[in-house]
Amino acid sequence: MEVLVINGSPRKGRMHTGRIVSHFIEGMKDAGANVDTIYSIELNIGDCKGCFNCWTNTPGKCIQDDDMTEVLGKMANADILVLATPVYVDGMTGSLKTLVDRFLPHLKGRFVIRNDHCRHPIRDHIRQGKVVLVSVSGFTELDNFDPLINHVKAMCKNMNREYAGAVLRSVAWIMEGAAEQGVQIEPIYEAIKQAGRELVSTGSMKDETLEIIRREFIPRDTVVELTQGFYNEK
Ligand SMILES: Cc1cc2nc3c(=O)[nH]c(=O)nc-3n(C[C@H](O)[C@H](O)[C@H](O)COP(=O)(O)O)c2cc1C
Fold it and tell me: Residue 173 C-alpha to ligand 1 middle, in angstroms?
């Protein structure tokens, strides 16, 4: 099984998105997946120019010759596409969105009706597997992920891929000083690995596993208190 992880965090593998996704990858590899990871911030990917040449003059090919050519090849071969991103102003990061916009060469221009909606046919060589969202947030409430989840679900309909769920960790920054706050971090990391194993071996992640990852681990008032004096406010 081929997995493509696209990590959209500008802090790449170093910080919270990277830490969470690395445990998820470990689990997927345990279950036998081949995992390729790319960092959107490192790539030379221009904004989509909206010219539609990939549907008209150069079908299936973008007129821009940049790193997206290789990424499109990787996306075409991915049984599972993992989109990993911190919540940035209620959505995905800019570099990830820029990359996703450039996926249009995988589609044909005409419309068809799919699931009672107008959509584009997918070109023949594209695998139509699953998409998983892995995300972290600074705020505490789980509904901070809602706009992003809805976006990824809608994107799946555009890509004709199955939305396979989300690995979510709010107030991810607490994980750095977890022990001081009495937060048990190992069971969370173990559940993240387990979610990766489940996805590859059964095709889905159990809700009980995802719940261990996303459940509240520190009261909100404590979080608010911890942020007082944290930033050098003038
Ligand atoms: C530009 C920017 C916008 C952000 N917007 C939100 C937001 O809307 N909601 C939220 O919960 N956290 C927000 N955050 C916090 C990040 O999601 C959080 O710091 C996350 O851990 C960053 O991921 P990283 O550690 O992989 O860099 C924002 C952070 C930045 C830098």
Answer: 10
CA 2 to centroid of chain Cα atoms: 16
Joined tokens for residue 143? 């509904």
Q: Exposure string (b/e) for 182-201, b if CB count within 10 Å is 16 or more? A: eeeeeebbebbbbbbbbbbe
Closest CA to 130 of 159, 83, 99, 164: 164
Of 137, 175, 224, 226, best ligand 1 pocket probe by most atoms within 8 Å of the beta carbon: 137
Query: Among 162, 170, 171, which Cα is nearest to 205's?
Result: 162
Say how far apart CA 199 and CA 155 lie, in whole Å. 20
pLDDT digits (tens, 9 = 90+) for 89-114: 999 999 999 999 999 999 999 999 99
Per-residue pLDDT, averaged over 174-180, amounts to 83
Condensed to tens digits (0 to 9), the pLDDT of residues 133-171 reads: 999 999 999 999 999 999 999 999 999 999 999 999 999
Name residues contacting ligand 1 (CB within 6 A): 9, 11, 15-18, 86-90, 136-139, 144, 172-173
Q: Strand 34-39 relative to strand 2-7: parallel, antiparallel, unpaired?
A: parallel
